[in-house]
TrEMBL record:
Protein name: Adenylyltransferase/cytidyltransferase family protein
Species, as recorded: Klenkia terrae
Cytidyltransferase-like domain sequence ranges: 49-144
SUPFAM superfamilies to which the protein is assigned, alphabetical: Nucleotidylyl transferase
Superkingdom of this protein's organism: Bacteria
Length: 186
């Protein structure tokens, strides 16, 4: 979004079915904090989740759909390429960050996407959004961290099970093994 929208037209593109990537991608935490506050003023429960979303698959779609069902507006943080490499190794991500951001934006129910940069302090996105509901998987936070998050930055943390039978990492290993087998057959 360029400039400030008219008050009567507050972020209307965020509520339409079309991707509207230019309006939905917000890479500034201060602006995101202001937008989150405005959404809450409208009476919407803001839901926040995040992840790598490398090679989007059914599990990602189901996870995002479930997250969206927990409130009125879903904000998704997508890990930057550098953040994914730091966590998953030098061969990741398989899909560059701008493409991953665009793909997440196309998922039904996603209102805003943002990029989680390596240089952001811990929980910077959570502190900016201060969601009504923070959605994570079981391995994301310790019980102590969940208690702190709920006491300081959000109303509630909801832990979802992984919703896929195959992870992106496992799929990439299969592709690599298949490619290796095919090249040795030649």
């Amino acid at each position: 979004m360029t400039g400030n929208p008219e008050p009567g037209r507050l972020y209307s593109d965020l509520f339409q079915d079309a991707s509207h990537f230019e309006e939905r991608f917000v890479d500034d935490l201060e602006r995101l904090a202001a937008m989150s506050s405005a959404l809450k003023t409208l009476g919407l429960r803001v839901v926040l989740t995040s992840g790598s979303f490398d090679m989007i698959h059914e599990g990602h779609s189901r996870y995002l759909e479930h997250a969206r069902s927990l409130g009125g507006f879903l904000i998704v943080g997508v890990d930057s390429d550098a953040k994914v490499r730091r966590r998953k190794g030098p061969s990741r991500p398989a899909v560059p960050e701008m493409e991953r951001l665009r793909m997440v934006t196309h998922q039904r129910g996603v209102g805003i996407v943002t990029l989680k940069h390596v240089e952001h302090e811990q929980w910077a996105l959570i502190k900016a959004v201060r969601p009504g509901v923070l959605v994570a998987t079981a391995d994301t936070y310790t019980a102590e961290e969940v208690a702190r998050l709920e006491a300081e930055y959000c109303d509630r943390v909801v832990v979802l099970d992984r919703m896929s039978t195959v992870s992106t990492s496992a799929r990439l290993r299969l592709i690599h093994l298949d490619n290796a087998a095919n090249s040795s057959d030649e």
